Amino acid sequence: MIVALLNQKGGVGKTTLAIHLAAGLAAKGRTLLLDADPQGSAVSWSSQRESAPPFTVTALAKPTIHRDIEQIAHGYAHVVIDGPPRASDLARSVIMAADFILIPLQPSPYDLWAAQETVELIQEATAYKPNLKAAFVMNRKTANTAISKSAKEALADLPFPAMASEIAQRVLFAETAATGETVDEREPKGRAAREIVAFVAELERMAA
To answer: Which of 57, 164, 169, 191 is the most buried (most CB within 10 A)?
Structure first.
């Protein structure tokens, strides 16, 4: 399975989600996290660790990923691609390389507006990859707020489903990013870790 995380708006927690998805999938099979974001945040995260991560992290921010992915993914059960933060040839290459596109969103009107550009790129790609799947995931959510509820209602008008799993805004995600950890490593029985487990399980069901 090759899952790419894309959003044309920065600050949605895309890299944090990609890292935790890779960690969740690594428990089930050999996993590669491909850092296709020119900012290289996933590689920076791995460099903060005291030990090697439970998955491979490789930087490749070139618009040839769709041509190279077969060789890159050889030997891996799962590949997670942390995509670039803007519409570009690189973003199109990431989409063409993937089986499933995950679009992280914060519950804000700005994120919903920005998502439309990502949706259009994916729809373009389906002309060449009719089996390509996509979904939205609410990230950095503040519980029980009116804007979170209205954002979820607005997603119903877009052409891809929204995941039932949602990831809350938690200080622990920022703390572990700084140390190169995952929330599961820091607090394996905490709420953040439980949210990630549910998120990974639901994504696997949707991608199957």
So the answer is: 57
